[in-house]
Amino acid sequence: ENGSAAAIPIDPRFDIAYVTPVTIGTPPQTLYLDFDTGSSDLWVFSSHTPESQVRGQRIYSPEKSSTAKLLAGHTWSILYGDGSGSLGNVYTDNFTVGGVTVTSQAVQTAQQVSYSFTSQSEIHGLVGLGFSTLNTVFPNGQLTFFDNAKSTLDSPVFTADLKWKKEGTYDFGFIDETKYTGEITYLPVQTDPGYWTFTSSGYAVGDGAFHPASIVGIADTGTSLTYLPAEVVTSYWGQVDGAVDSDYYGGYVFPCSSKLPSFTFGVGPANITIPASYINYAQITEGSPVCFGGLQSSSWLGVNIWGDVALKAAFVVFNGANPPTIGWAKK
Ligand SMILES: CC[C@H](C)[C@H](NC(=O)[C@@H](NC[C@H](O)[C@@H](N)CC(C)C)C(C)C)C(=O)N[C@@H](Cc1ccccc1)C(=O)OC
Description:
mainly beta
């Protein structure tokens, strides 16, 4: 039973995050969740979330679902790299996305969410698509939707076709040949500690020379920007008039009128080019002449992250076979 679902940008001005409609429970409750390959908890705003922390989000009410079952004695608590987080308890219930149903999916109900979640009314929770080893439920870790659904899919894969300021798709169980051009290049995945970790073969700035390098990083649909080693981003922003690494703004900013080069990264013998427009991420504030870059340094993170700014330049195959691999194609 394969499936396909929309990845909808939550803001028409710039791609902060993408949400996908899902239904939970009986009768079905529809929520819009952020599908996140950088984590492995499926959690939702719920009837257990204090009203002071809910600001327009849809909630899941297990008490209104005849198929909801409390997973007694289980709790969860998650912290993300951007400092946001949430915690709560756990139910199992029917969970459907794009026509793919898992009948006893662990659905983690939030009893606390950090302010950045409260302030983002379009995100009603997350669906972790990392490896289940990262799941934070205690005392027994739970399986992700993808791990639960795998055996019912034609092929143990899901693909991400994210788009710049437009609606893209997540497909489950099949590879849609109409969504990419040329060949898919598959790379090995390091599954420890549980991200989709792969090694890029180098980079080029604009039409400049390709710099062979081994850049170990994670493919993270839940992170808006792309964070790479300092020497890479310094060589990129060095090509942009007026670009500075600003402590005040927390990263590279540049005059919105400056011309940006594209950025190319190697995937094995192939490569993916991120158009300059994707790297001109957003004005600091509405109408500001100062713009924030979509390519930032990872030095403070401790991990290189190929977030949406990079992923939306490609068609990406998350292959959950044994051993897992990650596939990249132009589109
Ligand atoms: C289970 C925890 C999940 C897997 C968490 N994952 C992440 O933070 C990764 N993905 C982050 C998410 O994609 C996030 N941007 C979703 C939005 C909606 C909040 C980052 C690293 C790319 C993590 O690694 N948390 C780190 C916290 C951290 C990570 C990086 C830097 C600093 C701090 C931790 O400590 O986990 C125990």
